[in-house]
Amino acid sequence: MENKKAVVHDGWDEFASKKIYHSRGKKIGIGRSLGFGVFSMFSISMQGLVGAWLLFFYTTFCGLSAGQGATIFLIGRVADAIASLVMGNISDNIYKFKIGRRFGRRHIFILAAAPSVLFAITLWVAGMSYWYYLITYVITTILMSVLQIPWETLPNEMTKDYNERTTMSTVRMVIAGLGNMLAQFVPAQLFRFYPKTSPVPYLIMQVMFSVVTFFLIVITYKTTWEHFVTKKEAKKLQAQALEDNGGKKSSLKSELRNYFSTFRIKSFRTHMGIYLSSYFAAIVWSTTFVYYIVFVVGKTTSVSGMLQSLSIVSVPVTILAGYIVTKISPRALYLFGYSLILISAIDWAFIGLAKPAGVMIWLIVGTLLYEIGLYILYFVPWNVFPFIPDVDTLVTGKNRAGLFASVMVFINQISQGLASVIVGYMLDFSGFRQSTSGAVSQPASATNMILFIVSGGVGIMIIIAMLFASRFHLSKKTFNVLAAELTRLQKGGSMKDVKPDTKRICEQLTGVPYDSIEFWRRNDQQPTTPNDSSTKA
């Protein structure tokens, strides 16, 4: 009689057989990447519409000043940032509880995102109080980020292959591009059927996006997987955490130290400089562009939506960028994309000041250049990000993908909140007039300020992003060198055997002297069987 190993129902390893812990297929291709990528519609449904339309909605149909609307954005972003900061740690460690092992430390939050996306509908109810809009916005933004962070770590857990991760990032960004296009195109069509004094199309568009996204999130849950932390691995991770914390249990002080320790990695510091300055520019543009079209150029909100729906170019741009980034460095791709955005900023200034004939042609050309540059701006940071935790692993011996995602989202939320509030108060300072009827004229001081923000403000932040990008060295070539060295060390290799060129590249990416790394010295001190569990969890 065949002997079978009995399953121990201890609330731990019995869950290792669940589908969410097992890869499906030998290779991650387009189909599997689609399953992962459709979740990106979650952020479009929760915040994509917000960036383009919500401040305009507040000042046009809710009677709020631009400063009040921007203050709501800032408060929401700060609350969101605080929640996001702890979310990565929660996701990384929820495996310690039975519910986290049963549903997955990443997938439990993906599952929770499906009903949460419906809450965003409450944002678009006209005629309510300031406090109503503040509370609904804060809840919406917190839900978006804390539930998206665990999903963002999946590429790091699903594959270590550079090309497979690039495929996942490319497909994700293609879907995000389609979503952003629809977030402009759908409202533009709805505006044609309703008078400009009606807030109804804003509510309808959110209902449509939320319902569709509900089902897309379920697809992501069913088609992706993550690493299962075994009981044995958990004990080693706990012992390592105690060792790192001087034999003491985790505390607020130690957690804050962990968050700040991410900036020890040079690639992450530079990456964040690029990410924050460029995204700051994108938020400034998206918040102001509809004002620019309506009050500076004198066109309608439908025209603004139509122009922004040119983001359909994101599909070929993202696909092409996904191919090019495997051939050239992210740095070169960054600089090309940012150059296009700078040209578009000059175009906005020219249109506003010169009032040229054939203004729609100038607007279309400027928008196309901006959208091409924008989707390079969107694509490259999220293509690069899954590789940064591996750079950190070389220094720490740990997989801290959730922690890096939390820090990245935390700083990004603060930055975006500041961008929105700066725009709002600059509009108020210029004498911008709010309304509840959907129709109001603006003084010259307000239109001049709008023109300055959409051209000069965007241009300045993009130049800063270009300066950071020129110092970024992570690429397919350098990552492969680092990954090979990390694999060698994980298999018990000695630090003394590192090749000079490998050592140089590792130090260039980490910003840490190779010889000062302590974690892998144990390979020389303990000639035992290779142990790589610390990088799997």
TrEMBL record:
Give any Gene Ontology cellular component. plasma membrane
Q: Does the keyword Amino-acid biosynthesis apply?
A: no
Q: Has UniProt tagged this entry with the keyword Protein transport? A: no
Top-rank taxon: Bacteria
Q: Which GO terms describe its molecular function?
A: symporter activity
What the entry lists under Pfam families is as follows: MFS_2
Q: Which Gene3D superfamilies match?
A: MFS general substrate transporter like domains
Keywords for the protein's UniProt record, in alphabetical order: Membrane, Sugar transport, Transmembrane, Transmembrane helix, Transport
Annotated GO biological processes are: carbohydrate transport
Q: Which organism is it from?
A: Lacticaseibacillus zeae
Spell out where the chain crosses the membrane. Answer: 34-58, 70-87, 108-125, 131-151, 171-194, 200-221, 274-294, 306-325, 332-353, 359-380, 401-427, 447-469
| Matching PANTHER family | MAJOR FACILITATOR SUPERFAMILY (MFS) PROFILE DOMAIN-CONTAINING PROTEIN, MAJOR FACILITATOR SUPERFAMILY DOMAIN-CONTAINING PROTEIN
Q: Which InterPro entries match?
A: MFS_2 (IPR039672), MFS_trans_sf (IPR036259)
Full protein name: MFS transporter
